[in-house]
Amino acid sequence: MKKIILAAAVFGMLTGAAFSQAPNFDDPAEFAKQRDQLTATFNGPADQPYLQYAGDSMADTASFKKEGPWTVCFSNAGVNNPWRVVGYTDMTEEVKLHPEIGTFTHVDAEGSDDKQIADIDDLLAGGNCSVLIVSPNSTAALTPAVEKACAAGLPVIVFDRGVTTDCPVTFVHPVGGYGFGIQAAEHIIANVPAGGKVLMLRILPGVDVLETRASGARNMFKEAGLEVLGEEFTDGDNAKTKSIVEDYLQRGTIDAVWMDAGATAVAAVEAFEDQGVDVPVVTGEDQQDYLQKWRDLGFKGIAPTYPTYQWRTAIIAAVNTLKGEQVPSPEWVLPQPAITQDVLDQYINEKMPPLHYAMCGCEDMPNYPQAWGGTE
Amino acid sequence: MTDMPLPAKNPRRFRFERHASTILLLAAIALYIALIIIMGQTRFLTLENLVAILSRSITLGITAIGQTFAILVASIDLSVASVISAAAVVTSVVMNGDPAMMLPAVASVLALGAVVGLANGLVITKLEVNPLIATLGMSLIIQGVLSYYYNNFAGNVPVEFQIFAYGTVGIVPFSLIFMFVLAGCAWFVLRFSRFGSDVYSVGGNKDAARLAGIKTDRVVIGAHVICSLCAAIAGIYLASRLRSGAPWIGAEGVYDLESIAVVVIGGTVLAGGRGGIWGTMAGVIIFSLIDSIFNVAGVDAFVKQVLRGIIIVAAVAFYAARSKRPVA
Amino acid sequence: MSAQSLPRPAAAKRSLPKINPVYVLVAALILAIIVMNPAFGEPTGYMNFLKRVTALAILSAGALYVIVSGGFDLSVGSIMTLTVIGSSMLASNDPNSTYWIIPLMLCIGAVIGLINGLVVSYLKVPSLIATLGMMITLNGVAFMWSGGAPRGYLPDTFRFFGRYNITDIPVITLLPVAVICLVVFGTILWWGMHRTNFGRMLHAVGDNQQAARLAGVPVERVRISAFVVSALTAVLAGVILGGRAGVSVDIGSGFELQAITAAVIGGAQLLGGRGSVPATIAGALALEAIFTLLNLLGLAQPVRLVVQGLILIGAVAFATYQRKRAGR
User: Fold this and answer.
1) pLDDT tens-digit readout, A4-26
2) Which of C70, C132, C304 sits opposite B261 (nearest CB)?
3) I need a surface site. Which of A81, A326, B225, C254 has the fewest CB within 10 A?
4) Would you identify the CATH topology of the domain C3-325?
5) Cα–Cα distance between A133 and A140 in angstroms, integer?
6) Any idea which architecture A49-174+307-336 has in CATH?
């Protein structure tokens, strides 16, 4: 009971970029744009996706040029889910690669808008930041705080979820929620005959990026003539996910399970296993436990990603700004690849923890894998 | 009356309890200043930063003022977080960017708060449901109704209304002044009104209070109405601060458990009848200071949680350990 | 033998042997589920259901010990989380590790329960606050230990208890190990509460602490033991839930209030003196059956919240009404 409310709190701030303030989760133009971006060619080195960007629009940051050592301030919405834990590790390791960063100040709002606004006030009152990086807990609520920081003359970098002002130097994010939904839905449509039954498992309603993931997929299923058995909310809870799948299995067959996020994908797969039923198509995300389950059982999986390497990119954008170099702007759109059967093996690493997100772009970093909880 | 330790009967204990929250507050301040000096961060010793610290927890502060009333009558309110969410959503939906709707919005939110408080009070007194269960159930009902209609930030607050959260007099935010004025009013009511003294009597010993001719049910209901009203005001403030309301913002801030924690840290006894508003305000400031100390010292988010848990228990033990009464 | 009769044999004589309404509720709910979904009447249907409810049922029965003694234990959910996270950290994929990890986790649980009990009994911190602090602290510890995300898997030997089904059994076809655990631990907890001197003392302490003390009951020891029992069952519930669901960092969150709810639906009286283990287990079944039924009816999450809130308040109000009518 309280869990539901708590889960809402936790997942209210789940990974995601909000593209518009108005809760319009079925925007055909945005859908088409993201669909194109999934297959577009990105600028920058192909082997370093965290440096790549879509489009040519750049911001001139000469006015922010500053001699080191810098104090990089980071207001974080929270590290309250494994995706954010991996991302934050990416970020701290990236900081270590830049000797010009003298101090890295991290304040954690523990998933509360109210607290994050106060945190940014604290950072501004301290008056010591060379640059402010913000990972907003929610879009509209953090906008005034970000505007205040811009007005104080600080260069601001926003990533993951956006704000509704264009005063920041740039907004770093991957392609987006529709893209995620499209990749998973295309895979299901290709592997399930018309008329097949799809169960859609979602974490909870209302979160922008999760809504766009679902709305993208839902439209595609309809077009392809697949029957959606139901859309159920799991609160991101393994036990509940398992119960839901068990209940649906009791009432009939399931040809595919579409998931809006991967953390509970393995629980869904286990529900089939425990009932002694063959595992159908189950989509997931790039976390290790799912990738390994997929390989071991050999079902038809796919792992769309919401890459954690954007946390690295945020630091890189901050450093480039303080160096006075050009930065992709107003948005720095990163590539958002999906892990498919062909490339599955290259992303599996059994030395990494179960909820390590493989698309971290971190394998080339000096402290990999220990810093991410892996073993040599 | 024997069971009711009226201050006058036990001046020594009273003095300790009266000053304990001040001692805790001074300790927190000393720790903060020491930390700043040790870390060579004296730039934090400015008036601006003091204001920033005090303004950290205004939502919590307003909520805790109300929670103090509930706890003083030996009740408790777990529904405040849901009321905050509902109030914020109603505020922003009714206003929907239109300055002319500011007054109706505030009025309807206050009415909502009063109704919830009344319902809580009635369920607790007339149906004799344990307050923990009654308000937990109420919280679920409000949350359910709210998320039936809304599942995201809904509506928005006009710029004029954002002054409540962002406007300042000099460097002091309106909202900070508002919180202290509200605390002053609450103190005045508790200290000088008939209702205030009834609150202490009912919380101290309900049966004795009833025998003394106090309509105890009305006092409990009144305390709950005040509690929910304060939560509603906190929701209005939060809508102004976040520019909109969403059905999860109350739960997200954990205002239910945190408001109980600061009230108790401020020296109000969970069993009711003893404590007061200024202790609660001290508790709120202590919480803000702890947050700031953690931020200045760069404490890891997880270590923060561990320390916060220990601090809550230790602070309450600081008062309670010498108490002779059994606790629930 | 209804539990209510134990502390008050005199009251039992006066009224006709009556059945605790929770059993009627469970029967009605299950009947409704079978009508809506006949597959539920088959072994896979009801065994899956029992398997699902095992963790909560054991947890609630343990939490009841603290409730009967007159306190609350809000730390049980965080103990479950700590058990699952800690076990996954220690196991490092070694199937034999289970045999020392579970005893070790039980020891850690016992220590946590002991600390809760000591803080409540000797530092006089109200159990609500003491265990709230413990909850926050333990969640932080689990995060610190794991770095915020699970760092290992639970070996199959560990998951045996929550996940494995014994198949090819006549009549019932399959028997989940979890259901065996439910029967075994349910019986032990029933015996401890209703058939031992300790159980009687527990009721006495919860009913009236001073009177119990005067009657020679070692009040502190009894209360501390209650917290230890509660913490130990939380570890067991953690093992079973972890077995069923696998590792996640917030696996136990929310269970503390569910456990209290289950006990309350089973007729336990908050603040002590009354409660029955079988009725509490039935309360847990009722809670899960309500969820299942609402699911089958296709009701959205918000409606479920409202129904839960109403049932919670209704159950307690009904129990109070019945007690009043029976002349207490």
Assistant:
1) 443 333 333 332 323 223 456 78
2) C132
3) A326
4) ABC transporter involved in vitamin B12 uptake, BtuC (1.10.3470)
5) 17
6) 3-Layer(aba) Sandwich (3.40)
